[in-house]
Amino acid sequence: MEIPVSELAGRLDAALSAARDGEDVILTEDGLPVAKIGPVESMSLLSRLAEEGVLALPADDRAVPRLPQAEAAKDALSSLLGRLRR
User: Fold this and answer.
1) Cα gap 4→21, rounded to integer Å
2) What InterPro entries does the record tag this protein with (predicted)?
């Protein structure tokens, strides 16, 4: 579907309906294409890459373990910041 930019305001409902139906809507000025309104992919990038086999999504039940070194570093940093603020 092509719509002149000058007519877009009056035909916006039709353009959005066409985009929802998967059609690209080309906006034109003086008969030349200047922009495109199209459907939005509803699938996220990660889901699409997983579906294509490019990556594997982590299991939902897999928790990230807390490392003792990270906790100790966080405590040391908090302590240092507390002393600097005094």
Assistant:
1) 20
2) YefM-like_sf
Q: Per 3-state DSSP, what percentage of the chain is helix, strand, and coil (rounded to 5)?
A: 50, 15, 35
Surface-to-core class of residue 81, CB atoms within 10 Å of its CB (0-12 exposed, 13-18 middle, 19+ buried): exposed
pLDDT tens figures, 12-63: 999 999 998 889 999 999 999 999 999 887 667 788 888 899 988 777 766 6
The pTM score is 0.49
Q: Is 20 within 8 Å of 11 (Cβ atoms)? A: no
Distance of CA 51 to CAs 5, 40, 55, 62, Å? 38, 18, 8, 20
Please state which of the four CATH numbers 3.40.50, 3.40.1620, 3.90.930, 2.60.40 is assigned to the domain occupying 1-38.
3.40.1620
The token pair at 48 is 């699409």
Q: What is the pLDDT of residue 35?
A: 95
